[in-house]
From TrEMBL:
InterPro entries xref list: Glyco_trans_2-like, Nucleotide-diphossugar_trans
Pfam assignment, any one: Glycos_transf_2
Taxonomic source organism: Vreelandella zhaodongensis (Halomonas zhaodongensis)
Organism superkingdom: Bacteria
Domain Glycosyltransferase 2-like, residue spans: 471-650
Name of the protein in its database record: Glycosyltransferase
Database matches in CDD domains: GT_2_like_c
Length: 741
């Protein structure tokens, strides 16, 4: 069959009168029944010559070999052409509205903006009524757009109307503009320069000058920037760094150069000239100078390497952070032409992520009077070990806070630092060694081994002795084909043996299911079936199970999960047993191996979403976080462990307000408010056949219930949902892929 004939057969399913035909950049693979895209610009073109104007709903499902891609459509008329992008989700139907004006004669469809193979299980382009479109447009703004949170559709429509009046355009044009902004997905690898130009939030120069002149800022004294200069550094690199200091809006800084003995004569002569030209620049030969100077609490110390630059508003942004002992900010890198790339948008203070990776990087400032206690042994580093010094400084801050709780660490979510080269550690002192040393200093007995990504470590915490009993609660109703693989896999594929498995039966009537429950209860003494003869309420069922359980640790387990290997429960118990840790979540996969749950990000879609959903199983994720133990504000209860004392202290799950959805997020937020750290680990891995047991929210009654529970979460936790401390406000709340906001 020809490519053209195949295109008709595959693409015409959504309309008898509408067909697309492929460009030569596509080939058809009849063996696998899929298309091969030979170019990122390959597209299908419509045959239809006249398109009726109005609102259309695009429904698209693309199974493809490349994860982080988008589909796009181009609508062509005689005098105007416009494009829309459509982010794709693996295994999930994507929908979006588009308004087609008069005069459109052809549509070009690009299934993915990359080379690779794909198939199209579902593709429809359906005309919808204006009232239907209006309802969906406003609801998406309320769910996704940060300016429309926590309001009604009437209030959202009024905002659109006011913005249309201010812009001098129609309501329809304005709502389209606002709606389309919720689909923008800017990849930090490909779109960072565009984001910098259009979206980066920087302080207004006039406001900075006014604040400085009016003394409205609480200035933090003097900033000391120590700059190790090696034999390979050039005059130009040194000038780049010093110029970024001299261009600051505040002049309360000093640069202390630390030249190596092997510095080139040209560089040494240039340093001597700089000292004469600018009294703020000095030279020191002593790596212990900061400690010997006895700096006060109004002084701050940081390291720069020649070639590094501060942003023009760095010192202004740092001012006003009174009470902090250590400050770190977001950062990026620059290439040989000075172009910025590779941004690193960091979470707020995240101790377990720090034990996994030196995520704080190089944009770090420490208060002068705290430096002697936090500075690594040996004083300031040479140019080749700056990364090690900064990593150990952060770990020392963690150790000091662990022992006394007196170290106040603040994160500034703004790019204040531009690195000239990637953050690296010298081979002589890798991160595993640094973490191992820090844990010894904290008197923590844990094993430290290499992590799964570069410059990372894995801390294997011990399981208490005697081993705590774990109560695994598995709610279910009928569906033996789901329940049996779950229960059998847990019993057969779990190395940690000291657990009880409580099947919480919610009015099952299937004879096969009832027979299996009876059989497995008799077969394994760890299994017990409890009957819950009430209407489905996930929170109530699990609270009932917790009351009738005996374990020191409660495990909330969906009846559609299956452990991948035997280590999963040992890892989760070792983490949940730590007194500073609250809820512990696992890494969950769809049956096809893509990520279903890499932790929860608050605010995505209005309430919460799953981090890195649909990424491939072996991908590192944003900044390696898909492979690193870390603190997250919430994790899913599809597989969640928490100590009984903590579960009971927060009152368990919320039965009255959250019968079905978001009860796990609510539980985690209550635990977070206790001051405990919720945690996600990639070393507990399970398959999750998501929501098979209760089904999707696809009826009016279910949708009404889902909206009610979402409203409760917004009312109860709105400020925290919009500013997840384990995320970064520069990253999107419209998608789950850590793309730019």
């Amino acid at each position: 069959m020809s490519n053209y004939a195949c295109a008709k057969r595959v693409l015409a399913s959504f309309s008898k009168s509408l067909h697309f035909y492929p460009s030569p950049a596509f080939t058809w693979d009849p063996h696998y029944h899929r298309w091969n895209s030979l170019s990122e610009h390959a597209e299908f073109l419509s045959e239809k010559s006249v398109w009726l104007p109005g609102w259309y709903m695009i429904e698209l499902l693309v199974d493809r070999s490349v994860t982080t891609v988008a589909a796009s459509f181009r609508f062509e008329a005689d005098k105007r052409t416009f494009n829309i992008d459509m982010p794709l989700r693996v295994g999930k139907l994507s929908k979006r509205l588009v308004y087609v004006p008069w005069g459109v004669k052809r549509v070009a469809f690009r299934p993915m903006n990359a080379e690779g193979h794909f198939s199209l299980p579902h593709f429809r382009l359906v005309w919808v009524t204006p009232s239907f479109a209006r309802d969906r447009l406003l609801q998406r703004l309320i769910n996704i757009h940060q300016d429309y949170r926590d309001i009604t559709q009437q209030e959202a429509s009024a905002i659109v109307r006011e913005r249309a009046r201010e812009r001098g355009e129609s309501w329809r044009r304005t709502v389209i503009r606002e709606y389309e902004s919720t689909y923008i997905s800017l990849c930090s690898r490909r779109n960072y320069r565009l984001w910098v130009r259009k979206f980066e939030e920087t302080p207004d120069p006039a406001k900075m000058r006014a604040d400085i002149q009016a003394r409205q800022l609480e200035l933090l004294g003097i900033y000391y920037f120590y700059i190790p200069v090696a034999d390979f550094h050039t005059v130009d690199a040194l000038d780049t760094t010093l110029s970024s200091l001299q261009n600051q809006s505040l002049d309360n800084w000093k640069a202390v150069l630390l030249p190596a003995e092997a510095c080139a004569a040209e560089v040494r002569q240039h340093i001597e000239a700089l000292v004469v030209q600018d009294p703020r620049i000095t030279v020191s030969e002593s790596p212990l100078e900061p400690a010997q100077t006895a700096l006060s609490s109004s002084a701050w110390v940081s390291l720069l390497c020649p070639g590094d630059r501060l942003s023009v508003h760095a010192l202004y942004s740092l001012a006003g952070s009174a009470g902090a002992d250590l400050i770190y900010s977001d950062e990026d890198e620059t290439d040989a032409d000075g172009m910025r790339h590779s941004p690193l948008f960091k979470p707020q203070w995240n101790p377990d992520l720090l034990l996994s990776q030196p995520y704080i990087g190089g944009a770090v400032w420490v208060r002068g009077d705290k430096l002697p206690a936090l500075m690594p042994a040996g004083g300031l580093p040479c140019a080749t070990s700056v990364g090690n010094w900064q990593a150990k400084l952060a770990l020392n801050a963690l150790a000091a806070g662990f022992e006394t709780g007196a170290v106040n660490i603040k994160h500034i979510s703004r790019i204040l630092f531009h690195r000239a080269s990637p953050f690296t550690l010298s081979p002589a002192d890798d991160y595993v060694s640094l973490v191992r040393l820090s844990l010894q200093e904290m008197h923590c007995s844990a094993q430290v081994v290499p992590g799964r990504v570069a410059n990372s470590a894995r801390v294997k915490w011990p399981v208490p002795s005697p081993q705590p009993l774990v109560s695994l609660l598995v709610p279910t109703r009928d569906g033996v084909e789901i329940l049996k693989p779950c229960v059998d896999a847990i019993l057969e594929r779990t190395d940690y043996k000291h657990f009880e498995l409580l099947i919480l039966d919610n009015q099952s009537s299937c004879t096969k299911t009832l027979a299996y429950m009876e059989e497995v209860e008799q077969r394994d003494s760890r299994v017990k079936v409890l009957r819950w003869n009430h209407a489905f309420n996930y929170s109530a069922i699990n609270n009932f199970g917790a009351k009738h359980s005996n374990g020191d640790i409660i495990g909330l387990i969906n009846n559609d999960v299956e452990p991948i290997d035997g280590e999963w429960l040992t890892e989760m118990v070792s983490q949940a047993s730590r007194p500073e840790v609250g809820c512990v979540g696992a890494k969950l996969y769809y049956p096809n191996g893509t990520i279903q749950h890499g932790g929860v990000v608050l605010g995505v879609g209005g309430v919460a979403g799953h981090a890195h959903r649909f990424f491939q199983h072996n991908e590192e994720g944003y900044a390696g976080r898909l492979q690193l133990v870390q603190n997250l504000t919430a994790v899913t209860a599809a597989c969640l462990l928490v100590r009984r004392e903590v579960f009971e202290k927060v009152g368990g799950l919320n039965e009255p307000d959250l019968a079905v959805a978001y009860n796990d997020v609510d539980l985690c937020l209550k635990v977070y408010e206790l001051g405990l750290r919720n945690l996600w680990t990639p070393y507990a891995e399970l398959y999750h056949h998501e929501s098979i047991s209760r089904g999707a929210d696809d009826t009016p009654k279910k949708r009404a219930r889902a909206l009610k529970e979402a409203r409760y979460m917004r009312e109860q936790w709105g400020p925290l949902l919009d500013k997840d401390p384990a995320y970064n406000p520069n990253l999107t709340l419209a998608h789950e892929d850590f793309s730019l906001r």
